[in-house]
């Protein structure tokens, strides 16, 4: 937590902080991931204008956890950036307005750890892989195809037979 008032920023003023946050763990696709280094150091830039405080965050971390294809350990480097704005002089009981309020600033106090966590989660790519060309697990026998060729022949089904298969499945279910 950072008290923005304590920074005593005059309008037009800018300050830069380097702050460490507590360890961050993320759950993605039902798997647990940790962030390294364990206490990531964030660069935070605060700029005050007449309307409020602009906040920018930047850090680089590694996401460590299972590969989505083969479940072996994966390490993905993330460049994390975030921007927030908190308007000055907002009444305490005003409803949240995304143009004026930051979800991480409450009564002029910045929840840096919460912001960092969300910014890191947003920086995670669409797939977390041990390597770009990870061959994954064999759908037939479950062997890790990066390590050995299990010899299974994986047959792609012919889509022309799909309606017939669906019909036989429906008949089997009795509907
Ligand atoms: Zn993999
Ligand atoms: Zn196999």
Structural description of this entry:
The structure is a single chain. The chain is mainly beta and about 180 residues long. Strands 2, 3, 4, 5, 6 and 7 form a six-stranded antiparallel β-sheet that branches. Strands 1-9-8 form a three-stranded antiparallel β-sheet, with no helix packed on it. The protein is elongated, with a radius of gyration of 24 Å. One zinc ion binds next to loops.
Largest sheet: 6 strands, antiparallel
First-last Cα distance: 59 Å
Question: What ligands can be seen in this structure?
Answer: zinc ion
| Separate helix tally | 2
Residue stretches low in confidence (pLDDT < 50, at least 5 long) are none
Radius of gyration: 24 Å
What would the average pLDDT be, to the nearest integer? 90
Order of H and E elements: EEEEEEEEEHH
**Residue share in helices?**
10-25%
* Computed structural class: mainly beta
Share in β-strands: 25-35%
* DSSP strand tally: 9
Shape from CA axes?
A: elongated
Defining traits:
175 residues, single chain, three-stranded antiparallel sheet, mainly beta, six-stranded antiparallel sheet, 2 helices, binds zinc ion
């Amino acid at each position: 937590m950072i008290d923005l008032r304590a920074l005593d920023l005059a309008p037009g003023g800018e300050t830069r902080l380097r702050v460490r946050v507590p360890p961050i763990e993320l759950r993605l696709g039902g798997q647990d991931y940790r962030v390294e280094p364990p206490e990531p150091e964030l660069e935070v830039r605060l700029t005050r204008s007449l309307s409020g405080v602009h906040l920018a965050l930047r850090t680089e971390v590694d996401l460590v956890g299972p590969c989505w294809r083969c479940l072996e350990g994966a390490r993905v480097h993330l460049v994390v950036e975030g921007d927030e704005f908190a308007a000055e002089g907002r009444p305490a009981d005003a409803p949240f307005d995304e143009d004026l309020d930051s979800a991480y600033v409450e009564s002029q106090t910045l929840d840096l750890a919460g912001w960092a966590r969300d910014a890191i989660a947003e920086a995670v790519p669409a797939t977390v892989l041990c390597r770009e060309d990870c061959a994954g697990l064999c759908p037939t026998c479950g062997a890790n195809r990066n390590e050995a060729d299990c010899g299974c022949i994986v047959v792609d089904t012919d889509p022309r037979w799909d309606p017939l298969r669906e019909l036989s499945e429906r008949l089997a279910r009795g509907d």
